[in-house]
Every structure is written in structure tokens, then in C-alpha cells.
Amino acid sequence: MSMKIVSLFSGAGGLDLGFEKAGFDIIWANEFDRKIWETFERNFPNTKLDRRSITDVSVEDIPDCDGIIGGPPCQSWSEAGAGRGINDKRGQLFYDYIRILETKQPKFFLVENVSGIISSRHKESFSRFLELFEGCGYDISWKLVNANDYNVPEDRERVIIIGVRKDLNKKFVFPEPQEHKPNLKDAIGDLPEATPALEKNKTNGELTIKNHEYMIGGFSPIYMSRNRVRTWEQPSFTIQAGGRQAPIHPKAPLMRKVGKDKQIFAPGHEDKYRRLSVRECARIQTFPDSYIFYYNEIADGYKMIGNAVPVNLAFALATEIKKQLKEAK
User: Fold this and answer.
1) 90 has a pLDDT exceeding 70
2) Mean pLDDT for the chain?
3) Which pLDDT band, with edges at 50, 70 and 90, does 329 fall under?
4) Backbone phi, then psi, for 168, in 5-degree steps?
5) In terms of CB atoms within 10 Å, which of 37, 60, 193, 255 comes out highest?
6) Alpha-carbon distance 22 to 65, whole Å?
7) Which residue has the higher pLDDT, 64 or 126?
């Protein structure tokens, strides 16, 4: 019997796919963003997707399960964003997670969030969340992990909180970092050249390699304030939720520093500088090519992928959870 999972704030399903690959069964998911629904439902045809805001979902509407997974919206805690934390309505969605966890009482839960949630300005809120999770009856483990340590070709630091129900007498131990650290060549080295987006960054629609298209348009002064190119032998920069912020393809030379917070493209090589395609970003986030993203505006493709948990990171954590819960019996 596979363990049943309820997925909250599911997004495009990176966390869900990692758990599915590890042998868990995603029986119910919740996602409020209408631009994601088609992508999730087509890739998880056997999972019931509840499309309401989580604040409107009654605990009675959610099936019993062995585990709850999900990352409440992270913009409130992001160092790049306004960082309003618990004062932001999105930050308060953490409490909906706790409300559901407290009643459903699964064997375990997993929460993923940005590293900003443990910054000094949010320290108090973070400690409070850990207390509330513990108060629901769970032994809590948390860690700042880099996805590159878990077979993801990307530097991506995220906070993972995992709780195991106290009656199981098992405090989760995070898996050791893996020795092999994949790079950009491993991830996207075999892909042919991508197609530029249509005017106004609309999708090209059907492409031979699905989603292999990139955002066109200028680069902001903030973008040009630092180097955005990693070499083939390095892991990618963090894939962000905005297409305008997508890293540059590694075929381009590193950018040149010409002043404080000012870089330029290497003279004579300007034609080599393009953003990574939606599919390249998906590969870096370890989604398989069979996982198709559906959108009209190319920005929505980047957003879904940038907000996702890398599939291989989710798989490594799910595999370890499964193993340790077996030992707890």
C-alpha cells in the first residue's frame, strides 16, 4: 500500500512529482492560481485538484492522509521581495497549513520555503511557526539545504521543515549531501538552440521540444548590475519566478564588470546573450521533458517553474521520509 499524500499550495507540482516518483500517492491537491490549473491537471490526471483559496477550504473537504506537503507562498519572506512576512496576507497562509495539519494529524508533514524566512527580520515568526508545528503534536527537524547537493544542477537554497507525529517516536534526519553535483552541461548540454518568443512574449505554441522558447526584450539596470552567466561546468544560478530574471545561456562569455554594480555583455559577443528557455529552466529544476507546461504568456511558464520545488530534491527528501517511517514501525 502506497502512502497517501495531500498537497497544499501545489503550484506546478514539483514537490508532488518528486513524492510520486518515490512511490507516494498524491490523492488531493489545492492550488488557487488559475494559470496553473491546466498544467497541474494534465500532469496529474489521477489527482483531485481543489481550485479554491485554501482559506475557503474546510478540513472536512480534505481526505485523510499519511502526509501533508506544500510550500505556503514565499514572496512574503523573500529577501528579494518586500519581506513583509507575517504582516502580509500571503504570509498568514502558514496558519491555514497549521489549521489543516492540526485536524488531519498525518504521520508526517513537509514545508518548503525561501531562505529569507530564517533571516533576522523573520526570526521571531519562524520560531513561532516551529512552536505551532510542535504544538500540533510533531517532532520537528528543519534545515537550510542547497538543491545542488541533491542531484539538482542549480544553486538553490531553501528551508525545509519536516515533522513526524510524536507517537511514532522518530525525529527526521536529513539525508547527507550527495557527492555528484550536476552542472549545466549535464542538464541542458544536449538541447538544440531554442526559439525566441513571439511578439509581446506570447508562446509559439507547439514546438518540437515542448516549451523550448525564451523570453525576448531588454535587460534592466538591476539585471545588468551583476554577472548572470554561469559556465557549462557550473550549476545554474537559482531559477527565479520571473522570466525577465532568467539566467543567460552558458554559451555566452561571462559578463564584464565596468563599474560599481554595472556589467556589460562581452563586446563582439552580444548575439550570444539570451535568457534560458522555459524548457531549459524546467530541466534545471529537474522536471522531465514529458512534463509539459501550458500557458499563453511565456512569463507564466517561467513563473510556474521558478516557484516549483526541484523534482530531484523532493525525490531525495521523499525517499528518506519513506525509509525513516518504515524504521519507525
Assistant:
1) no
2) 93
3) low
4) -85, -10
5) 255
6) 16
7) 64
Per-residue b/e over 190-220, b at no fewer than 16 CB within 10 Å? Answer: eeeebebbeeebebeeeeeebbbbbbeeeee
Q: pLDDT digit string (tens) for 235-287?
A: 999 999 999 999 999 999 999 999 999 999 999 999 999 999 999 999 999 99
Please state whether beta strands 213-214 and 138-146 pair in parallel, antiparallel, or not at all (unpaired).
unpaired
pTM higher than 0.90: yes
Q: Is the pLDDT of residue 294 over 90?
A: yes
Residue type, 289: D
Q: What is the SS3 assignment for 237?
A: coil
Q: Smallest Cα–Cα separation from 13: which of 291, 298, 319?
A: 291
CA dihedral 31→33→34→39, nearest 10 degrees, is -60
Contacts of 270 (CB under 8 A, 6+ apart): none
Residues marked as catalytic: 74
Choose among 55, 42, 103: nearest CA to 292. 42
Burial (CB count within 10 angstroms: exposed 0-12, middle 13-18, buried 19+), residue 127: exposed
**Contacts (Cβ under 8 Å, ≥6 apart) of 205:** none
Q: 14 CB contacts (<8 Å, ≥6 apart)?
A: 285, 287, 308, 309, 310, 311, 314
Buried b (16+ CB within 10 A) or exposed e, 290-309: ebebbbebbbbbbbbbbbbb
Q: Is 125 exposed, middle or buried (0-12, 13-18, 19+ CB in 10 A)?
A: middle
DSSP 179-219: S----HHHHHTT--PPEEPBGGGB---S-SSTT-EE--S--
